[in-house]
Amino acid sequence: MAANPIHETGPLPLETLEGQGLQWFVQGENHDYIPEEFIELHPTESQDLLHASAVLFDYFVQAIQVVAREGRWSELHLPNHCIRLLQYSIERELGNYLIGRFDFSGGLAQIPPRLIEFNGDTCSLLPETAFIQEEYWEQERAELPPGEPYNELMVSLTERFEYLLERYPDREATLLITTMGGDDDWLNADVISEAAERAGFDEVHYADLQKVTFSPEEGIFLEVTPGNYLRFDFWYKMLPWDFFLFEEPELFAILDRIVRQELCIILNPAFAMLLQNKGLLKIIYELYPNAPEVLRAGRSAVDFPDQRFVSKPFFGRMGENISLHDGQVVAKVKTEGDYGSNPMLYQELAPFYTDLEGHRYQPSVFWTGEASAICIRRQDSLIIDDDAEFLCHIVAEKEEED
Q1: pLDDT tens digits along 226-251
Q2: Separation between Cα atoms, residue 270 and residue 40, nearest integer Å
Q3: Does a structural domain hold residue 283?
Q4: In a domain, 285, yes or no
Q5: Element (H, E) at 273
Q6: Dihedral sign from CA coordinates of 67, 68, 74, 76
Q7: What are the pLDDT digits (tens) for 50-65?
Q8: Are residues 388 and 249 in the same domain?
Q9: Nearest by Cα to 365 from 9, 99, 174
């Protein structure tokens, strides 16, 4: 990282973003979401983040296979009625994984990257990473040091969809994308849609969950015109599997049948429910206690006699219901949220790069069968949550050796 890695820039190209339907990220309440700055990464920093992601995805796959082989479902607080589907998914669908995002501490200023968590079922930050920082960089590149964002997200995501079509040659190239209806979710879904269309999907449709028809005998349908139902062979959901498991159990039972009868390919596959489960981090730590990318993890504060840990809910999201202890029994800071009744994972307190203004920086890496893009968030808080800024980046060009 450069001595001063932050480079001030001009304003975002609003007209370009409006043309792409991305103005939501820079207007209204989001007007300061993307600061007029770039952060410069050294090539070794980006390489370390990408390498850590490749190693960690293998660790996650190994861990879910251990869970299935040894029957350790209860350690992840999963009910019995989901086990059959998860076993099936681990055995048959490992190759169907589409996209996730690793969140790291460190990774900057010579602080080694260490995994905080894996958004392995559903993930956001797709438009910002794939499009906005690219447009911003194109505008500002003449004023920035030599380099560019590390961003192969659209290329790699398109290749994943191409692979799925090749893997299932007898399937129709029809994709339904479903969210709960929020603006942010739809903008993330647009990235999925564009990649699928580039890959050769003939039909790509959107629908809120309540408009989708789920049949345990026939599959997944959408009424595209009055009385005309289109059946889909692929379904991408911007909703996590544990939402169906705990909030919509009848629908989960139908999805169980749809998957095991191979009526539709659901993305991400059901085993992604395990990847996103924070309890899996404890099992990964057991398997790889000396791995430099892995933080120590336990199921109780007793595992951390120095009282330096973070507790987080197994099924939590958006930085909710997290408590941070920095050497004291009483939490130094904690957040509220909807996951307070969850079982908790206890994780070693990790170092973050922090600037002189108190901003903490969190790099992330998208995984699409490979480490395909880097993005960075920052916040003047000990816990990075939905209020964090998205900070565009460049990876400095490598210096030529003599």
Answers
A1: 889 999 999 999 999 999 999 999 99
A2: 37
A3: no
A4: no
A5: helix 272-276
A6: positive
A7: 999 999 999 999 999 9
A8: yes
A9: 99
Question: What residue type is 377 in one-letter code?
Answer: R
Write the CATH number for 44. Answer: 3.40.50.1760
235 with 131, same domain: the answer is yes
Domain that holds residue 319: 297-349
Q: Is 397 exposed, middle or buried (0-12, 13-18, 19+ CB in 10 A)?
A: exposed
pLDDT at 229: 93
* 232 located within any domain: yes
Give the span between the Cα atoms of 330 and 333, in whole angstroms: 9
Residues 56 and 165 in one domain: yes
Helix (H, G, I), strand (E, B) or coil at 362: strand
Q: Are residues 136 and 223 in the same domain?
A: yes
Beta strands 360-367; 100-105: pairing state? antiparallel
Q: Is 305 helix (H, G, I), strand (E, B) or coil?
A: coil
Using a cut of 0.90, tell me whether the model's pTM lies above it. Answer: yes
The gap from C-alpha 89 to its chain's centroid, in whole angstroms, comes to 19
3-state secondary structure 277-301: CCCHHHHHHHHCCCCCCCCCEECCH
Q: How many CB atoms lie within 10 A of CB 143?
A: 11
Q: Give me 226's structure tokens.
A: 């009055």
Give the integer Cα–Cα distance in Å for 188 and 126: 5
Let me know whether 219 and 335 are in one domain: no
Burial (CB count <10 Å: 0-12, 13-18, 19+), residue 37: middle
Would you state the structure tokens that stand for residue 36, as one six-digit string? 């007029």
Q: Is the dihedral of CA 73, 74, 76, 77 positive or negative?
A: positive
Residues 342 and 364 grouped into a single domain: no
pLDDT digits (tens, 9 = 90+) for 78-137: 999 999 999 999 999 999 999 999 999 999 998 999 999 999 999 999 999 999 999 999
Structure tokens at 37: 């700055």
* pLDDT at site 218: 97
Provide the phi-psi class of 200: left if phi over 0, else alpha when psi is between -120 and 50, else beta: left
Residues 228 and 319 reside in one and the same domain: no
Return the DSSP state at 304. -
